[in-house]
Amino acid sequence: MFGYIRPQKFELRVREYEQYRAVYCSLCRQLGDRYGIFARMTLSYDCTFYALWMMALHKRCPSFQEGRCVVNPMKKCGFCTGGERELRLASALSVIMVYQKVRDNIADDRFLKRLRSYFMLPFVSRMRRKAERDYPELDKIVALATMEQAAAEQNPGKSIDFYAEPSAKMMEQVFAFGAEAPELSPEDRLVRQAGYFLGRWVYIIDAADDLEKDLREGAFNPFIVTKQLQSNCSPERLKEVKAEANQILNATLSQLIAVVNLMDLQPFGSIVTNVIFLGLPEMQRAILFEKEKEKHVGPV
């Protein structure tokens, strides 16, 4: 996940916004408590959403209390007094994903990117070992998907669907792992479908977001490969490709929304639907047509 899964804040009620912030701040504290102070740098909107979704699936509605920010004690913020399981799971996922991202960057051709990743590797490796001990199956899911994604991207001339499949399958399994629904039950099938379409959407929007940068740097991008783009392609051609990306993303999003409409996601259903129905389309518009995406993580 890459920081694309966030709510449309202005459409949240005050109570919902405070609940979202409390889960975000609780995840930050959980990361520091379990994996060390540097683990807080892995905090993301994506894993906050994962924690919220898992709480909703398990019908857990933690109470909230006010406290001091663990990073800035001068600032007050809310914290969850429950939902420990979901927060622990989301914190493990956060450090596991960052570890795999750093490993992937080491294989990058760009020297500075490799150097920065080599510097980070000892820190994220230590965090990941703790997360692996806590959730070995989760670590295995992400590691295998990362390998499959790298292998898929070594195959030229394939489709967007082909390149997006490993990430989509990874999110399917990550959601199913957290949900713990009986295998092949209606709930398990819905959770898997929701995870699949969300993972597919994230992979494609990330590719669209990086399109110009990857063209400049000669890096892999599924749109560059499938559309046979060159570094000197015209702005009009890029606009056409982004319009095609928008169609693919809209189709994926419509499938995700159809699944979410069938799910009982209380007590945080209104926040989850805000993210899916409003937050993701807003992010899509900003990246494809406005190019004004905010930082991946920051104060909420």
Summarize the SSE layout with pairings.
Layout: H1 14-35, H2 45-57, E1 64-68, E2 76-80, H3 84-106, H4 111-134, H5 136-152, H6 160-179, H7 186-209, H8 211-217, H9 222-227, H10 235-260, H11 269-290
Antiparallel strand pairs: 1-2
Structural features, described:
The protein is mostly helical. The chain has a single domain (9-290), classed as Farnesyl Diphosphate Synthase (Orthogonal Bundle). The chain is built from 11 helices and 2 strands; from the N terminus they run ααββααααααααα. The protein has helices at 14-35, 45-57, 84-106, 111-134, 136-152, 160-179, 186-209, 211-217, 222-227, 235-260, 269-290; strands at 64-68, 76-80. A two-stranded antiparallel sheet has the order 1-2. Helix 1 (14-35) crosses helix 3 (84-106). The radius of gyration is 19 Å and the shape is globular.
Q: Tell me the major beta sheet.
A: 2 strands, antiparallel
Q: What fraction strand?
A: under 5%
Structural class: mainly alpha
Number of helices: 11
Strand order of the largest sheet: 1-2
- Residues in helix, %: 55-70%
Whole-Å distance between the termini? 18 Å
The total strand number stands at: 2
CATH superfamily: Farnesyl Diphosphate Synthase
Shape: globular
- Mean pLDDT, to the nearest integer, reads 91
Poorly predicted regions: 292-297
Order of helices and strands: HHEEHHHHHHHHH
Radius of gyration (Å): 19 Å
CATH architecture: Orthogonal Bundle
Level-1 CATH class name: Mainly Alpha
The name of the CATH topology is Farnesyl Diphosphate Synthase
Whole-number count of domains: 1
